[in-house]
């Protein structure tokens, strides 16, 4: 009897220690991420939250100034509002346009036409390319007199604008360039479209639904989760715009030119931090952006309950 | 009666097929037109890179170069110290690929296949970090690296890669979840520990996902602009992207040289795309979620 209970107990203990051993392995595996998170994300975030209430300039000063940075941001810094406006302008046009263009491309790609694979490659290729080379390519294409874009507009009788030299056309120029790379989202939509069961289309067709009605009442509801995913990631991505304003300028010495029309929020923050070394102020700007992005993402998620349709009906 | 019904339904199907065929032709024409629009910039880039400066300045612009100036490429490569930049970029990209594969396959295994308390919390925390705009941690990270005296070295551009990246961990975890647990149980019965299972069973089985990570990491490192802009302060350490901006200010309006240099900088990514197209597409599918 005693022996039996002993074996039972040791059995339990060994199971417990097995679980503990398993847990040790688990922590060992995720430890690199935990360290990385603390050192490169959480620590820096905490520090920057503190720094945003100081006049930190990286060398000596770090005096507590309360909400002065935040107050100056909203009341004194006209470039802050300019850069926020530029970024919102970009977000408002870029996000719906690229989402819509990618969806439209995917729907067309989903037809059974010979040579579709070649088309997919052609439309996807521009989205793979990034970096300074693409910006230079587009600066050349958008050249008012010798560029391909205005030349093509001329063929249909349109007198093209001055694009990168005209402050009111620089942002549309950047948005146009981004549209060229919209094929990136296409593949996600394509995968989603191919997951829509055929019998739904057949049923709708038997009911006499036109192709357009079939698209709105069958296709779109079925792929709303992917549309939602794309909207959220595109939104967060669009707020990050920086390089275009730094590189695609006529005069490299003045980022954001002409007339600060390409001074995006992140560029303004970057210049505050690394040109005038107002680190405290720049971290305050970073935190404001963080809050804006989080709030917009949460709104997006709340709204998604109204239109995103998950199969099986459970809104996870 | 029955014959008329049959013939009318026959003509109905015939007209439907005809309509379908017309629709397909219209779609094909639109596709071809859009395809030309997509490819035209590449043509313009290639043609400009082969023109003489005199021809670029001429108005109206020529659609193709009158004489092929291949020496533009040589000039871009030699005068811009491009070989140096290319080597630096290759080094950074390769270290990045190795670091990301090692760390992310490792961490994702912990999140996918081992039970431990607090796992769900840590995993949610990791997903939440994907929402943090990169610029919010940029400045404090710079301060950290400058306090560590890492500015001016490649350390800020390489070391963080060894600590995992949320998106790739998430992607690999999705992939691991599809690998049956029986395999792990069987290996355990044979006396294998988790380290052995990770290195000998999981990573080899996750090869498609590992290739996707290798490609996207390489691409990201090759195109990295902000990192080197912040942390590199010597010309001999420039990567391709920074080298290109320096090249522009040095050769201000020499668009033929600039386009030759730009094409050189894009070439590896274009080649990668054509060789590994399947994996680019697979990566999108894995990223899109569990249901695939």
From TrEMBL, chain B:
Keywords attached to this entry = Cell membrane, Membrane, Transmembrane, Transmembrane helix, Transport
Biological process (GO) annotations?
transmembrane transport
Family matches, as Pfam families: BPD_transp_1
In the UniProt record, the signal sequence range is none
How does this protein sit in the membrane? Answer: Multi-pass membrane protein
GO cellular component term of the entry, any: plasma membrane
Which residue range or ranges hold the ABC transmembrane type-1 domain?
Answer: 86-276
- Compartments where located: Cell membrane
**Which superkingdom, per the lineage?**
Bacteria
Q: Which residues cross the membrane?
A: 22-44, 85-109, 121-145, 157-176, 197-222, 257-276
| Family, similarity comment | Belongs to the binding-protein-dependent transport system permease family.
This chain belongs to the protein called Carbohydrate ABC transporter permease
